[in-house]
Amino acid sequence: MLDKGLKAVKLLISGRVQGVCFRHWTVQTATAHSLDGWVRNLSDGNVEALLVGEDKQVEAVILKCKSGPSSAKVDHIEITSAIGITPKGFSQKPTLDINERRGQ
To answer: Does the pLDDT of residue 100 top 70, yes or no?
Structure first.
């Protein structure tokens, strides 16, 4: 359970989001907004991220993710509620094979 005023969401970002430094950009952006969580590429070409922090800061990063870094082209972001269990800080995880993700 998250404290009042905190939010946890998982993003599934599609478009031209791999090979454009989207993960690195997300780490910098989320860190600047004092969020915890992670970001990773998926083998299907999408990017997945977990954002945990103050509601306003999470919403600010979601808004920024709709554009991403200058070389990205975001077509869609699927946003789902998450539990928010993650270590402090924001990290970049290795690429996940989409077949492994189905088992999670």
So the answer is: no
Q: What is the mean pLDDT of residues 10-21?
A: 97
Within a domain: 23: yes
Residue 47: CATH number of its domain? 3.30.70.100
> Is 102 one of the annotated active-site residues of the chain?
no
Is 41 a catalytic site residue? yes
Give the pLDDT confidence score for residue 48 in this predicted structure. 98
Q: State the pTM of this model.
A: 0.90
List 16, 23, 40, 46, catalytic entry: 23
Task: Tell me which of 41, 46, 101, 102 is the catalytic residue.
Answer: 41
Question: Any residues with CB less than 8 A from the CB of 49 and at least 6 apart, and which?
Answer: 10, 11, 13, 26, 30, 37, 38, 39, 40, 65
Whole domain around residue 56: which residue ranges? 6-86
Query: Has residue 82 been placed in a domain?
Result: yes
Residue 103 placed within a domain: no
